[in-house]
Amino acid sequence: MKKYLVCRIAPSEAGGVARLMKKLAKDAERNGIELVTGYQQKSIKNYIRNREYFKVLTEIIQRFLGDLVFNFRVSRISGVEVFCIHPQTLGFSRFIELISRNKKTYFYVMDNSFFCMMSYNYDPKMKMECLRCINNPINAYEQCYPFIVNCSRSDYIDFQNSLRRFSSKVHFLAQNQLQKELLIKVFGSNIVCDIVGLDTGEVDSKTFHKKRLPPIYDFVFHGAGHLAKGVEYFVELAELLPKHTFFIPLSQVDCEKVIGRIICAKNIIYQQCSWETGLKDAVLQARITINPSLWSAPIEGALLKSIAYGHHVATVETEFGYEKEVANDFNLIRLPLDKKKAAAILTKKIKDCEQKKDYIPMRNEVDKSIINFFSNC
């Protein structure tokens, strides 16, 4: 039977899903699975900044045509087995249609859009992991909105109700055990769900990177410029520990836009960079790398790379985050939500960071890739 891998996000280096797709596309080709992806978009802002207006027009046309082709190809998939990633960009209604008209749909869960309209289940009031909508999406705060793709709250609630209704036709593929537990809480214990891990091909899953550079930063933030990723938490730690150096891979302007206020701390080094253009070197030269995600994050590439390349790694305590699952495996420093208590812990820990600890082999979640799992079903 013909099998399809469907994701609107095209393989590239632009973000976590795109990086995953870059690896999955190669796996799919090897296993005879047809790949259906969207157009790989280029930055219109960069074209405007460089006054390349013809390229702006060309890009708009290519995006329009790319959407037409992608939607047409998806509409032709029927009565087969489908592997889907990222329903937000695929389109919630289109995702439900794929489930309803195909023999079986494998849903690889990248984030928590299966119960949280924000995708990252972060409580904007309490500034912590949020589980309000586990039982019903209507429990969302008024200020919550469908994240990534612009759609109405009612559209998202319709998607949630439809996914619950069709859950018996879905084979859920979770990244880790705690994510599977969340899926069971939402859809019930009768769902079919396997743990298949996450491998973007960026980190060797068996050995740590052996190279270490002399530390020049006390703390490095490894995450995106998003409240759920803990950038505000990191800034507040810097303000509480003025004698220590803190590195953020964002510009100060972008950082201030995210947290909504001026940052006056003088001990923060800002550098707009990606993993390839500076962040990797910063992690290699940090006494402690902090991955302060404040949601029920599954396997984040940022955390894996921090563990593989960093001296010591700290996270913030969560109930359902992957960090909780592997804290003992990797000697993670788990920080409380209370920033003053966290600052006290870090002050004590940093004194010990000159001493190297033994390298611990990185644990594999599974013995086979996601695509191999799908192709062998």
Can you put this structure into words, describing what you see?
By secondary structure, this protein is α/β, with parallel strands linked by helices. It has helices spanning about 15-30, 45-50, 55-75, 85-90, 90-100, 155-165, 175-185, 230-240, 250-260, 275-285, 300-310, 320-325, 340-350, 370-375, and strands spanning about 5, 35, 80-85, 105-110, 120-125, 130, 170-175, 190-195, 215-220, 245-250, 270, 285-290, 315, 335. It has a six-stranded parallel beta sheet, with helices on both faces. The radius of gyration is 21 Å and the shape is globular. The chain starts with a strand and ends with a helix. The model is unreliable at about 355-370 (pLDDT under 50).
Q: Report the β-strand fraction as a percent range.
A: 5-15%
Strand tally is 14
Q: For the largest beta sheet, what order do the strands appear in spatially?
A: 2-1-3-4-7-8
The percent range for helix content is 25-40%
Give the arrangement of secondary structure elements.
Elements: E1 3-7, H1 16-30, E2 34-37, H2 44-49, H3 53-75, E3 81-85, H4 87-90, H5 92-101, E4 104-108, E5 122-123, E6 128-129, H6 153-165, E7 170-174, H7 177-187, E8 192-195, E9 217-221, H8 231-240, E10 246-248, H9 252-259, E11 268-270, H10 275-284, E12 286-291, H11 301-309, E13 313-316, H12 322-326, E14 333-335, H13 339-350, H14 370-376
Parallel strand pairs: 1-2, 1-3, 3-4, 4-7, 7-8, 9-10, 9-12, 10-11, 12-13, 13-14
Antiparallel strand pairs: 5-6
